[in-house]
Amino acid sequence: MEAPVRNTVVHGTTHHGTHHGTHHGTHQGKLRSSSGGAVWTEKYRPKTLADIKGHRKLKQLLERSVATKCRGLPPLILYGPPGTGKTSLALALAHDTYPDVDPNLFTMYLNASDERSIEVIRERILHFTQTSWPGITRKFVLFDEVETMTEPAQASLRALLDDVDKEGHRTAPLFMFLCNSLYRIHPSIRSRCISLFCAHVPLPHVKDTLSTIQRLEGVRSPKIPSDLTFSLQRGDLRSFVSAIQFGKELNPWDAWFARLETAGPGKSIYVWEDGLAEVPLCILIRHVFLWLQSKDMFKKEGFATFLNLCLELQDAPKETLLDRLPDAWDTWYCMSGVSALGPPL
Prior knowledge:
alpha/beta, 7% strand, 5 strands, five-stranded parallel beta sheet, Rossmann fold, 345 residues, 15 helices, 44% helix
């Protein structure tokens, strides 16, 4: 099936390597998987706000702006975890504002990690804003990964915002900054924008979307992430779709948790070592705590002691972690009888 599916959403695909000023609809056909087909995250990207699942209140706000052709709407910052729909929301807002116009005429996409300098960015934007087309009152500039820019570069963006908009957000381009974390955005940009948080898509919507895509693609053995994996990846729908298309493990941490659960006293150090080779301690401990929460283990005796040690070791070198963390885990999870293995005989 070649056309995008209505009411099916794949959020947050990053547009690395696309031509600036190109809307997602024009390069969908150019993105190909290694097997020769279109990349699913683009093929099934929602086109309109109505197509996007979740984000009910956020969509209501944007839909009201569409009704006025976004006149008076100040610059936006859409922030949140990866794969939660920031890019899709921005592109859908632009599309719905001018649904019958070629998006190349009014939408520019820029990725901070692709640009060489703020001067190049400024030149591109000014060139884009100086052209006008009948029926288009506001253009859209989507600026992705803006938090990766240096502070001086972000400060220069503030001057750019002021230069191109001197009449109250009526006909000047609508800037939409997309980022994972708001705290890395320069205050001079935040003060000129409305910040909107994009939370993860609810699990039922993720499951429905993945099931729909796999059915349309003729996948014989559909795969759905576990509830735990959904929590670990913070609802990153994009990563789930990519994992299914390219045959990657959908629940990559399940095997590690199984090893940790069955490792006897004195053996868990090997499991912790493998885990720390994959991710930093802060992420690994988050994964472990989510796993323990799914097993209702927080109320077990001795957990507070293990938790306090984790907080104490959060900035420790790897050697110190492997010297103390496995022993603390064995003391609580294995030796106390929390583990199904119980203490050694």
